[in-house]
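Reminder to self: tokens first, then the designed residues, so the page reads top to bottom the way the pipeline ran.
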């Protein structure tokens, strides 16, 4: 998945443009900037690639999620449905607004089970937030039907799946709002950065103002601009945007490499008895940043995970034990350990995450292994890797 692997002249040239003018901020300083508007250019490039009306670049994927929610008016006491398997950012971005994260079980797509989503809806539910984990996507058609039926917003966390698509639409553009991350380990990176995409004019204006202290950006002198509502500083810098501009132009090149490498590894293991592949919803095209598969039971999965790393197959993840990605080890979140006191409305509205039944998620994630697909592997390296994975899996499955 990591765009950091392939870095070069194009990124350097873009950054140099910014350094030569010295204007590191996205707004203002028109006379000094030699015509360089890297953030604006990158927003246009993302809108074009994702076929949406609006893109708002911001400082991170986490802030993108918070801003996306805020732009639609989500706040204290509103419930947002999210999956048990994600990155802690999903939870943080909701709680930051005083809204309530409602965690729902995943299925064999490794993200939201639509049936469980529908069962979790209450009178306070406002948003369904699927997370397209590890390069593949949620069952968007089913989730959209549920959202339409219950008048809910569909917000796609596409931070790990940029470049994938569903029924011909780029991931992130299917729902009302979509978010991307360009942090250092994502498919394309700009160091730190994120984006919100939408076709909704009102949300776009809100996201624009909210991410810059509520400035209305009417183009007057910055000091003379009005502030229709409060906001924060979630701005991206021109330096980061410059890197992103070079990287987005390489997105399709990266996706092709990922797909090629993924396909070699997949073919080597998919027919081994006992191994089954993660389900990609019909009409979905992954971005191929990970290859995820299931083993028959938890013990075998642990054994395979250990054996893969002992045999030099690096970049294999057993998310079940991971304390950033799966609810099981999110004690700091489940116990709401914050610095200040959270509002009563938040505390009282939260479910008791400790006593909820996440057995269905355990069932899938306890048996999942994901292999990171790298861009920099040579053909020989991919072949050798495929061979090693095949022999490890064969040996473990025979033993099972
Ligand atoms: C990386 C990531 C985020 C947050 O992005 P940052 O840019 O690191 O803040 C949110 N959701 C998912 C699924 C992610 O993988």
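Designed residues (400 positions):
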């Amino acid at each position: 998945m990591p765009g950091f692997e392939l870095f070069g002249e194009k990124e350097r040239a873009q950054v140099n443009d910014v350094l030569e003018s010295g204007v590191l901020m996205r707004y203002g300083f028109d006379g000094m900037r030699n015509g360089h508007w890297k953030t604006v250019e990158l927003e246009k490039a993302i809108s074009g690639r994702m076929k949406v009306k609006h893109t708002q670049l911001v400082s991170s994927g986490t802030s993108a999620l918070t801003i996306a929610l805020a732009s639609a008016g989500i706040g204290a006491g509103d419930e947002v449905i999210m999956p048990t398997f994600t990155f802690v950012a999903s939870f943080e971005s909701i709680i930051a607004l005083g809204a309530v994260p409602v965690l729902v079980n995943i299925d064999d797509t490794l993200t939201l089970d639509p049936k469980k989503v529908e069962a979790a809806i209450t009178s306070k539910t406002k948003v369904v937030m699927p997370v397209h984990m590890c390069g593949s996507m949620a069952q968007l058609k089913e989730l959209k039907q549920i959202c339409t039926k219950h008048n809910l917003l569909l917000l796609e966390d596409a931070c790990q799946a940029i470049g994938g698509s569903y029924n011909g639409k780029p991931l992130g553009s299917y729902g009302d709002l979509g978010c991307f991350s360009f942090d250092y380990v994502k498919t394309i990176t700009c160091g730190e950065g994120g984006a919100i995409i939408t076709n909704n004019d009102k949300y776009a204006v809100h996201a624009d103002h909210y991410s810059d202290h509520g400035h209305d950006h009417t183009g007057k002198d910055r000091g003379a601009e009005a502030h229709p509502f409060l906001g924060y500083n979630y701005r991206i810098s021109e330096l980061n945007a410059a890197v992103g501009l070079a990287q987005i132009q390489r997105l399709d090149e990266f996706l092709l490499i990922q797909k090629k490498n993924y396909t070699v590894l997949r073919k080597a293991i998919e027919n081994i008895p006992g191994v089954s592949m993660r389900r990609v919803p019909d009409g979905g095209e992954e971005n191929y940043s990970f290859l995820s598969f299931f083993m028959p039971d938890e013990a075998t999965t642990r054994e395979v995970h250990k054996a893969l790393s002992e045999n030099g197959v690096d970049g294999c993840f057993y998310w079940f034990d991971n304390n950033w990605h799966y609810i099981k080890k999110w004690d700091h979140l489940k116990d709401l350990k914050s610095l200040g006191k959270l509002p009563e409305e938040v505390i009282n509205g939260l479910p008791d995450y400790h006593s909820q039944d996440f057995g269905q998620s355990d069932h899938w994630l306890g048996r999942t292994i994901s292999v990171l697909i790298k861009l920099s592997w040579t053909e020989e390296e991919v072949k050798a890797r495929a061979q090693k994975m095949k022999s490890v899996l064969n040996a473990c499955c025979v033993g099972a």
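The CA atoms of residues 59 and 73 lie 20 Å apart.
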